[in-house]
Amino acid sequence: MNLQSKVSVVIPFYNCPYVHLAVESVLAQTYPDIELIVVDDGSTLHTEKLTPFMDKIVYIRKTNGGTASALNRGIQAASGAYFAWLSADDLFHPDKIERQMITLTQTGTSFNHTAYYYINEHGERVSEVVRVLLTGRTEMIETMMKGCPVNGSSVLLNMDIFRKVGLFNERFLYTQDYDLWLRILPHYEWSYIGEPLLDYRVHKEMGSVIHNEAQFREIEVVQARHNGVLAKLLRKERGQ
Question: CB of 176 within 8 A of CB of 170?
Fold first, then answer.
């Protein structure tokens, strides 16, 4: 992998008052070759916050279809060899993309995720470092069968993955990330950075709070869809 490979960062945006901060965090990255795509998923609020950045971003407006549809629209428009997703209310740390690209090179992997902090509405850190404490691939598979510890905004992956497993499933409104990670897991080794490179904002208007019950039902559907394949993969990793 060439460390100068372009990274396309996609920010799905729907009525989020923090979107300008997310954009600024991408523009402040130390990695030199980044394409920033903001997909406006039919917003009726806070679009003016993007006005100062229009000459620095690729702006795509579409009718409202949900996060997965916005991500897919951004991926389809992207020209980078690598993809990162940033939720409009979250923040990249300045060296996030650079650190991840170096890690992909050093480990020979195509998928990387990182530790993170929780922040509140005011951008204040309200947690210690949130880490995925796993000892290897077997434990990762076991953990992913039970739930999703991977923060979507922490992920960086090679675009070739989408050609192998497909894009985000737009039928899932809340667990499109979990579903994709479970499709990726059988085919690719993952790497992980245990240092926090993301601020994940927790606030009362976030989707996982508003739609908690619907999200829980979708998690069950996603698990039922993939657990047969993952159980087989787990037996293979254990040499059974």
Answer: yes
Nearest-angstrom CA–CA distance, 232 and 235: 5
pTM of the model: 0.95
CA distances from 172 to 29, 176, 210 (A): 31, 5, 16
Say how far residue 14 (Cα) sits from the centre of its chain: 16
Contact 95, 174 (CB under 8 A): no
Q: Are 21 and 49 in contact (CB under 8 A)?
A: no
Residue 83: which of 12, 187, 7 has the closest Cα?
7
Q: What is the DSSP string of 191-231?
A: EEEEEEEEEEE--TTSHHHHTHHHHHHHHHHHHHHHHHHHH
Pairing type for strands 82-85 and 91-92 reads: unpaired
Which letter does DSSP use for residue 125 in this model? B
Contact 68, 176 (CB under 8 A): yes
Cβ atoms of residues 6 and 82 within 8 Å: yes
pLDDT digits (tens, 9 = 90+) for 165-182: 999 999 999 999 999 999
From residue 3, give the alpha-carbon distance in Å to each of 24, 63, 78, 192, 220.
22, 36, 18, 18, 39
Element (H, E) at 189: none
